[in-house]
Amino acid sequence: DPVPSPQVIRPEPCCVCGSRIRFGKTAIKCCQCQLLLHTKCREQCPSLCTPRPHHHAWPREGVLADFAPSTPPLVPTLVVQCVTEVETRGLTETGLYRVPGAEQLVREWKRKLLRAGGALPALSSVTDIHVVCGVLKDFLRGLKEPLVTFSLHPAFLRAADIPDDAASDTALRHVVSKLPPANRDTLAFLMLHLLRVSHSPDCKMDVLNLSRVFGPTLVGHSSANPTPLAIMEDTPRQCKVVARLLSLPPSFWRGFVETEQENLVPV
């Protein structure tokens, strides 16, 4: 519900067109989600916000399962929507996931999506696809523990370190199967997405580039407060884990997220 706001005190980006609303200009501010837009952009702003009871909002931070749906595949709506948007209009963008989006827009959209809970506003109004990529990375980085979990972190590093590729793949498949279901399904969904990005010639983001970007985000460290030494030692190994995971066949990952295999527990 946009309402006119007072003049802008500091330059802020418009949530519709992405360009800055200059100091002293009148802008429109949504009283639901606090996003700002130029008065001239009001027509392009879909009516995104619907008032929702507070208990529907997601926590500001949590483990992945706190955001996952109750039926498989257990991939948070936020992740699905960001990935869908990126695949709809981002696979021709150079440097996808490497080029940063405007920090303030990333923060505002992440806050807006978390506040919306499962009923997400459309991301089609985010002009810059790098902002959508930023929201996804920021969401994954902001989890209380990384996607591979603190307890399985050492096992992932050990499996990726095995020199023989076939043995390394077998070990990684085994460790992936031990992840909590929501983490496992979301990792599978993201791997299939990143493989599609890596196969797009326009993106210029091969497996090595993507593993550098997503190593710290998906693998992280084995505790919430790693020592400086652990950070230094973990960084190259995080990238190695993601590169090895991306070398596993897509059919392995599809087994976790395809609808006909929703019930993974044998009857």
Automatic annotation (TrEMBL):
Residues 62-253 form the Rho-GAP domain. One of its GO terms (molecular function) is metal ion binding. It comes from the Eukaryota. Keywords: Metal-binding, Zinc. GO terms for cellular component: centralspindlin complex; cleavage furrow; midbody; nucleus; spindle midzone. One of its GO terms (biological process) is Rho protein signal transduction. Residues 1-49 form the Phorbol-ester/DAG-type domain. This is RGAP1 protein.
